[in-house]
Amino acid sequence: MGKLNVTVWNEFLHEKKDSIKRIYPNGIHGAIAEMLGKFGEYNIRTATLEEPECGLSDEVLDTTDVLIWWGHIAHDKVPDEIADKVCQRALDGMGLIVLHSGHLSKPFKKLMGTVCRSKWRENDEKERIWVIEPAHPIARNLPEYIELPQEETYGERFEIPTPDELVFISWFSGGEVFRSGCCYKRGLGKVFYFRPGHEAYPTFYREDITRVLKNAVDWAKPSCGPKPTLGHYEALENVGDKYAGKSDDERTHKNLYK
Predict the structure, then answer these.
(1) Phi, psi (5° rounding) for residue 18?
(2) C-alpha pair distances (Å), 1 with each of 15, 42, 223
(3) Which of 25, 27, 40, 149 is deepest in the core (most CB within 10 A)?
């Protein structure tokens, strides 16, 4: 198998302000692509909100193995048809990694089926991200915890479905805790939500955070298993048709179970 195709999507709006541009001169997407690129294991491209089709044309999505999504202030600017295409690709097997405020993005909320709200504040608090499933692939080569000296605070209750697997829990110096590493299976695809990454902090330049993203990409990659056939399907064996010659009414669900 060749290199995985990874697409890093970002609104790329915050970085137009000088205060944020100083931290991420090439955008958050650029920083993530740069850090992941150091492993030399992926074909990485970026896409942003203001590009045609939000940078997520059919060609791009159809050739993306894992999509990384960062969004914050413009969730409503993503057209529904683009969000629907992202969801369908995830259901068809594309991996989806949702970062920080992306928990309120259209694709994530559609895949979760909930409003995905939480409490939050910006107060330069310390975040300690505890690894609670050290044997999980996303925790590979990580320390027992990751400590971020400053981050935006999120707190429970986090209105998401119970994760299939919970890899990380965050504690903040203000007292909150938060489910910050949540794994889901949706259709043929895998979805991972990872909490850190506020635009005002250089979180995505950290090697330990990049290691989490790398592990998540490797975990979320398509399984390349058989694609199931859905809907009406002809029998593989010659079982005959006991309703041959019967009217449509006689073939109804009611009659089939008599």
Answers:
(1) -60, -40
(2) 36, 12, 12
(3) 27
For the chain, list the strands marked E by DSSP: 4-10, 42-48, 66-70, 95-99, 119-131, 145-155, 165-172, 177-186, 189-194
pTM: 0.91
Domain boundaries, the chain: 4-116+181-220
147-171 pLDDT tens trace: 999 999 999 999 999 999 999 999 9
Quote the distance between the C-alpha of residue 229 and its chain's center. Answer: 25
Q: Which residue intervals of the chain are DSSP H helices?
A: 18-21, 27-37, 58-62, 80-91, 106-112, 207-220, 253-256
Determine phi and psi for 118, rounding to 5 degrees: -155, 180
- Whole-angstrom distance, CA of residue 141 vs CA of residue 245: 65
Helical H runs in 121-252? 207-220
CATH topology of domain 4-116+181-220: Rossmann fold (3.40.50)
Two tokens, residue 136 = 């999980």
Q: CB under 8 Å to 61, separation ≥6 — which residues?
A: 7, 67, 85, 86, 89, 94
| Burial (Cβ within 10 Å: 0-12, 13-18, ≥19) of residue 107 | buried
